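Record minuted for everyone:
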Amino acid sequence: MTKFEDNKVFIYNTLKANKEEFHPINSPNVGLYVCGPTVYSNVHLGNCRTFLTFDMVYRYLIHLGYKVRYVRNITDAGHLENDADEGEDKIAKKARIEQLEPMEIVQRYTVDFHNVMKHFNACAPSIEPTATGHILEQIEMIQDILDKNLAYEVNGSVYFDVKKYAEANDYGELSGRKIEELREGSRELDGQSEKRDAIDFALWKKASENHIMRWSSPWSVGFPGWHLECSVMSSKYLGTQFDIHGGGMDLKFPHHECEIAQGQASHGVKPVNYWMHGNMLTLNGKRMSKSTGNTLLPHELFSGENELLDKAYSPMVVRFFMMQAHYRSTLDFSSEALAASEKGFQRLMTALKTLGQLKFKKTEVDPILNQEIEALCAQCYQFMGDDFNTPRTIATLFELVGKINAFEKEGGITKIAEETKDLLSNTFSGMVVDVLGLKVEETGNEGLLDEALQMLVKIRQEAKQNKNFALSDKIRDELSAAGVQLKDSRDGTTEYIIN
């Protein structure tokens, strides 16, 4: 049997506001779509948390044996400055300010996004389509919705008719909003507005004379609406109905609500079975956002060149920090929390290394110890299956760290069965490496550091042999103060741990 047959997965479905057991449409195949970045600026850590959340989801489903097609788009056109279909295109505006071609802006920040994801050890998606690469398909979907009388054209622009759609469908079902409330919260239409109703949204916008990014269509030279691209690309690569759609909480309305309406209008079915939304990352208690300027860029965190934290933190420590919170909970950056995560990450990596080096010696099996380890391994899958509960999974992994460290102290003499030893090894490394996506970090100075520490260990050994205990203790204490713990045994100092 495959792991996914043995281990159930329950997902909190935003559409139902409840946890539901995951049943793929065409198991073992899974379709996963995640809204990618709008590439007009450097990706910030708030964005990164969303992408790392769904990297973890993708990794776990793969770990269970599912065959996942993971689609994450690049928005390189159509995203205006606000959700009222007004303002400049964000990419075109940046291009105008920097006096560059829009595609130069797109290329620069797409490369930055990929580099940051590589630092975080994120898996590449199966397909990474762009909005500009699917203009024809977007025009086709608009025409289809027009043909079904659920959109209207005015002066070269096309708008989705929300009121008409709502006659037979529940617009607002994802976000829990009612049309009357949305209308009350919208600005009154002035004489210049083309929309029939303030809650209608653009499928195609006629370009003004100074709008840089434009394409020909049956209605005008213009550009597609932002919401449309995801409906087009998800249905093209995953089908008119697919399993999981992910994104940040901020996209729930209007972006994802509009996606549902477009999919239902065009294909006659709800496009997604499970909607997943990651919560925000906060900085100084406020949401991280490009629009407010309350952001911290990854390179500022990795280099320590910022005024918000007291030191630099590595990508793996930051990834681990994010995994310590449930994806649906808010997470606030602070030096204290990151420092604690750094120590936890190093403990985990040390245990992973120790587990790989342990030479288990056969002895009498302790059935109680066997059951404890088997239960802890099972708990890892139970917690991951409970809406990808990484914090509880990590807490269980640390219980296994205690067992691993005890085995090492006993010189590898363990009272567990061979199959339990394999279960421990496969579960621990599988969860840490394959699912959480953590790895030993390479700084380029490991060899030099190791040589220096080995030299100090040797000097301390000689001092002990010469009964120079003052020097021996001084080396131990100084290293301890610097975060290096020496591990002594009857055979001398055999290992050090950098905390």
